[in-house]
Backbone:
């Protein structure tokens, strides 16, 4: 039996899976940037969301305010970097999201 090489990830609770935007390779004036001077973007697209935080008093889930496909801005040191299916992704809490880009 051939095993599929694709791995899917389902974030738990209030966690969010984000694909970070690509770093700029050159400046607005056309100067190419070396790999070491590139800033990691603080924006990305949500790939998957968890089912929400647990309300410990009622036992119900509190739904997240973001959804798959939202473009977001997150804090500088947000999340944990993971590599899945040759893609670098971030797993972070909803609290690490600063804004949704419309």
Residues:
């Amino acid at each position: 039996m051939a095993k599929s090489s694709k791995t899917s990830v389902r974030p738990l609770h209030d966690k969010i899976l984000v694909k970070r935007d690509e770093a700029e390779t050159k400046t607005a004036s056309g100067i190419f940037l070396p790999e070491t001077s590139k800033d990691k973007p603080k924006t990305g697209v949500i790939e998957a969301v968890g089912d929400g935080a647990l309300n410990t008093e009622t036992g119900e889930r509190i739904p997240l305010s973001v959804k798959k496909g939202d473009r977001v801005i997150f804090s500088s040191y947000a999340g944990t970097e993971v590599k899945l299916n040759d893609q670098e992704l971030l797993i972070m809490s909803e609290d690490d999201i600063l804004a949704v880009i419309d």
Q: What stands out?
A: The chain has one domain: 15-101.
